[in-house]
Amino acid sequence: MCSPSQPLPAPPVPTSRVVLPQAVHLPRQSTKRGGRPPKRWWHPQSGPPPRGGPVPADPLPLLLTGDPELLDDVLRLGAAAGVEVTVAADVGAARRAWSLAPLVLVGGDLAQALGASAPPRRPDVLVVSHDLDDAAVWQRAVSVGAEHVVFLPDGEAWLVDRLAEGVERGLGDAVTVCTIGGRGGAGATTLAAALALAGTDRAWRTLLVDGDPLGGGIDMVIGGEDAAGLRWPDLTATRGRVSGPALREALPEIGGLTVLSWDRSNPLSIPVEAMRALLTAGRRSSDLVVVDLPRRLDAAAEEALAHCTVALLVVPAEIRAVAAAARVAAAVSLHTADLRAVVRGPAPSGLTGAMIADSLALPLAGEMRAEPGLASALERGEPPARRGKGPLARLCAGLLDAMPAPGRAAAA
After folding, report:
1. Left if phi > 0, otherwise alpha if psi is -120 to 50, otherwise beta: which for 369?
2. Cα–Cα distance between 134 and 284 in angstroms, integer?
3. Are 137 and 129 spatial neighbours (Cβ–Cβ below 8 Å)?
4. Which CATH number fits domain 175-401: 3.40.50.300, 3.40.50.1370, 3.40.190.10, 1.10.10.10?
5. Domain ranges of the chain
6. Between 30 and 358, where is the model more confident?
7. What is this structure's pTM?
8. 55-168 adopts what CATH topology?
9. Is the peptide bond before 346 cis (omega within 30 degrees of 0)?
10. Which residues pair with 18 in a beta bridge?
11. Tens-digit pLDDT profile for residues 324-361
């Protein structure tokens, strides 16, 4: 399925867009919790998006073909990849969009005409054809600088992956933070929510993930339990590649923050495959991902730790809490290279953050000082540290300042 690959340069231009349905990987979203579905989220079976809907500003993959059957097939595969496609029915239209597209698909029917027009050389060009018996297709592929020739239907699965990769390539991985309580009620969930909200306050595309099936739902911590969107029970069957942008569109958005949480039904476990697929997609389409994990690690929590940039162990400044946290730290450190302590006051026995971190043999990431009114605000559904003031907000600002700058991943 491969032909010669030639890396080529690229100038830029606008596009005429065919907007496709997003994310066949994800189940149909329910709006039973009230509110309207997130913008730009629709299901492939619901037909084309409404007229006048938002048009994505980012460059899209380009398809050049005049073959209706090939057009239908590639649009169907684009929908399966959760990718929108620009369609050009002739070489002139293709040249206008040639340079900006992250991926170019050239139909076998127009490859010869395109080669004759001598377009500027660029990488990420594929020739797509139904005709296995056309020996000349390889020569035409070389003339347009194609890296591969893909024959349909045999190459459909490969092309779906390549479409998704072409759009998401170069986005990089988000800074990923896992929070774990050193004992029950340590405040790890509150820290996770506050840290994620602090990320959105910096205009970072942030995803907050509730990895604790018995935690009650992190959406409640930020007052978003009624927000429309998919929850973990809707997504436990997810496997393989998921479109990051489509995932973000499917999940609830609460105050600018995308959240993957639990509903109020009986809790389920998270399959490792689902955690892997959704975290990978979330990291590709976010600047910051914050995952709140249970103290007793299950396989899904271990998977999340394998993805994290840094893990924060929240430890109350109490002797028994430190003893409990030592056991949690021993388990967590088996699955992540960077585990740090966050010490939560007050300290009845006068233990300092440095003393506690030293006793755990962990670096001290920061201290959560007592904050009057925080507990009652959380009971009222007020998001923690949302005003950017107080000890918790200052801690989150310091933690984010100390982390690697995110790569500003954009939606595809």
Report:
1. beta
2. 38
3. yes
4. 3.40.50.300
5. 55-168, 175-401
6. 358
7. 0.67
8. Rossmann fold (3.40.50)
9. yes
10. 85
11. 999 999 999 999 999 999 999 999 989 999 999 999 99
